[in-house]
Amino acid sequence: MALDLTKEHGVPLEKQLFDWHDMVRTPISKLDNDAFTRVRIILMNGIENEQFVFLHSAARQHDSGVRVPLARVRRVEQHQQTLVNWLLPADQSVLETTLAYEQVAVEVTAALAEQEPDPYVKQVLEFGLLEDFDHLYRYSALIDRLEGKDPNNILQSYTDVRPGRPTAEEHRAPIDDVRDHYDAKTASPITKMNVLTILAGEQQTRNYYATVGPLYADPMARQVYAEISSIEEQHVTQYESLADPNESWAEKWLLHEANEVYNYFTCLQQEGDARIKKIWERFLDYELGHLHFAMEHFKRIENRDPAEILPQTLPEPFKYTSHRDYVTRVLQAQVDLNAQGTQFVHKSQIPAGAESVRYREQLNSKGSPTETVAAGYRWTPGTELVDRAASMQAGHA
Amino acid sequence: MAKNPTQMGTNRTGIATSPIDSKAMIDSAKSAAPTSQGDESNFANLRTEYINRAGQKPVGAIPPPTSLKGAAQAVGTLITGKRPQVLIDMLGERLAFERMGSRIYEALLAKMNGTLPPGRSPNRQEVEEFRDQEVRHFQLLKQTMENMGLDPTVETPSADLSGVESAGLLQVLSDPRTNIEQCLHALLVAELADYDGWETLIQLTDALGQTGLSNAFGEALRDEENHLRAVRRWYADNISAEAGVQLQMP
Hints:
The complex is a heterodimer.
Chain A: H1 20-23, H2 35-61, H3 67-85, H4 94-115, H5 119-147, H6 152-155, H7 167-170, H8 189-212, H9 219-240, H10 249-270, H11 274-302, H12 324-334, E1 337-340, E2 343-346, H13 355-363, H14 369-373, H15 385-396
Antiparallel strand pairs in A: 1-2
Chain B: H1 19-31, H2 40-51, H3 68-79, H4 84-112, H5 124-147, H6 157-174, H7 180-207, H8 211-243
Helix pairs in contact in B: 4-5, 4-6, 4-7, 5-8, 6-7, 7-8
């Protein structure tokens, strides 16, 4: 069922109210909740964070009577983000949350790529997918070898743990990370939504790693976060470059609000936890309120009809589900690709002296942390100590 | 039963939750070769490299005494070839631990409100008494440090690390979802360390010839012995009641 944006007005901004008890709720259970409830919470935190960053940037560059209206919307987004992100429980360690972030990156990128109609944008998503897939493998090795924990306690068998495009090969010079952008006049609404969604997810991931990396005492963990955080910055560069820079800021505001509506609607359609579902429903109504608020300002600022930018109905929700087969197919077909300018070529076609090759040789000149942490690592249920214990037992037999 | 008892239900963390997905995941992991050779020793080598790194600094330093009297005591010990900074560091650690200990007992008191079934240990009065004893131990250490010309507001390296060690205990005790026996287990970990902390401090003060201190600290050690015995009993009582058996703790 698609959502009709002209008929659904949601809750008006002035009725979007919170108190601290409402905002700070009982978190989900790390042990009992379905992994996709956690995936949704993390992505929606990222969606709210992107909105917050975008509206701040807009307020710093434009007046046209919107600075106070933007501040009003931002304040609600702030409280929405708090309510959503605080649903994560305190027994979920930083590294466990990191695994969940990578599960978001793998499953959501795959879902978006699967439904993406623009072949170039689809290719970009699949390219990024294999890189985040590899990060999951590296962090899995880290949690096994640092904390003695099984990454699958978080992943719940939905997402594979094996190498993707090796992180050590993902380091590229900026010239090979900026992509061609879609054309705002011809791109389909789902392409615009996909670009904003993946950008939000990757941006929060970069911010999270940059924040939590120094919380570790272990130099291996500090190095792994340093290395993967750098790739996440490349991903933010890649995905933000897909959006048409010729869109006006007010047009981008409309798209951001529409994407929040789309994402809360997508969560609402698939949430199995009744308590969390109510939150998605409430915030869908809040975002519809924000969208109509933005539409009114858009008419005033640009003297245009928002219908020129927005479709009447939003696209069908993407699927919060395991994409094992899809990811495996992409892995088999594309693991050896790398970027050359805005295009993707087999890595053997990239000249030895290319800027990206020199760039990664410099960064990896004293070794790549993600290679070190996962040396000889294969995921085994119960951690790799299961194999060691078995061989010790066999030795005594 | 206590609030939030350990119960059967849907826990999705194990591979048995989804046998088909788990089999696919295991097969996939087995079929993929690692991209780098070696094993955990590569991880260990990096740790060693950083440990031995030129310019590697300690967590922090021990500040010297701030008064002449303290300095004289410290110098006196130095002349005899002993290192008083170990004592200063440990006094700082004990002070920090006792201060935190009283907060741990406050978290336990909050947890007991409404979650402790009638007739179940611990007794509120006893917990309040233990909390107050931790505060008195804190005061004893504060005065001891002041008498030695030391600044009791300093966070010494071992004080800092005791905070790192205890961070998980506080997370367990302050989480609204944890039940009484889960909290008592965390408290037991704290009291085991607390007891050994005092015992080590007394031996150290004896060895450094500070017998006046070890007498004062002996009373704290007796309190801690009592805390440890009681917490073991509370824990065993609660586990027994929840499991429907009778455990005897040492």
